Amino acid sequence: MTTAQQPAPALTWGLRGRGPADVPVEADGLPDPPEKGLLGGTGRGVRVCVVDSGVERNHPMVGPVDRSWRVFKDDDGVHVEETEEGDACGHGTACAGIIRRTAPDCELSSIRVLGDRFSGSGDVLLEGIRWAVRQRFDVVNLSLSTTHDRFVDELRRLADEAYFQQTVIVASAHNTRVESFPWRFSSVISVGSHQEDDPDLHLYNPEPPVEFFAPGQKVQVAWLGGTSIRSSGNSYATPFIAGLCARILSSGPRLTPFQLKNALYLSAANVRVHGRR
Fold first, then answer.
1. Which helix (H) or strand (E) holds 231?
2. pTM assigned to the model
């Protein structure tokens, strides 16, 4: 009598007695030397979502916007709907323009969670992030945060969900020493700004919680009405790193968030690779 072979148990928290040969992984190697190949892409094929105040369509510094949604709250709860509305205050357009400049061939979309005068609420922000994650964007730019502790647990769950499905959240640190989220989570890429003159320079921070620094001081950014202004803040450093992520992913689309963070580390101007730099 032949006994039917039982299927191997699904992987959960451990290998359950299974060895390396039972869980093969095909890994994409990083270019060698790393710093010469990591940033060679243009963002082509990479879907980037700006969760912010909306994005002005047809702005000359932004170019095409694939899709736009808005998050709104009424007596029945918090909802998401597709919209033709543009930007409520300019902030999202500024971020989108930096991403476009850094990764010119990426596919840009927008989720509007801020209103006039940068007004917003934590539950609307949560729903916007949740929508972006569950639409499975490759990169989510989040140049904003919340200081309210009651949203921390759900934000952490969303950040982990994004991480494990290979959606990269690039989050701005607060401009002052204020405890805010989700940039404090290790599952996101956290960004502050540096004051160097080089507009294409990013740095690794050996003393986190902020992990990377990028151009964020007196940056020429897209603004409402097809115009541009100069402005400063971590908000504008963050989309530069988001754009770098899109460039790296267009060269290595199977890279995980863990590998992507390592690629940013290896390509940072202050990191020496095998004695070089």
1. strand 227-231
2. 0.88
Residue 23: Cβ-neighbour burial (10 angstroms; 0-12, 13-18, 19+)? exposed
End-to-end CA distance of the chain: 67
* Contact present, 262 and 124 (Cβ < 8 Å): no
Q: Please check whether residue 22 lies inside any domain of the structure.
A: no
Contact (CB, 8 A) for 215 and 194: yes
- The domain that holds 71 is classified in CATH as 3.40.50.200
CA atoms within 13 A on the CB side of 91: 25
3-state SS class at 95: helix
Token pair belonging to 246: 């899109």
CB 268 within 8 A of CB 203: yes
- Note down the domain range covering 58: 43-267
117 assigned to some structural domain: yes
- d(C-alpha 95, C-alpha 62), whole Å: 9
How many independent structural domains does the chain possess? 1
SS3 173: coil
For 9-34, what is each residue's pLDDT tens digit? 444 444 455 554 655 655 455 554 44
Q: Give CA–CA dist 54/85, Å, rounded.
A: 8
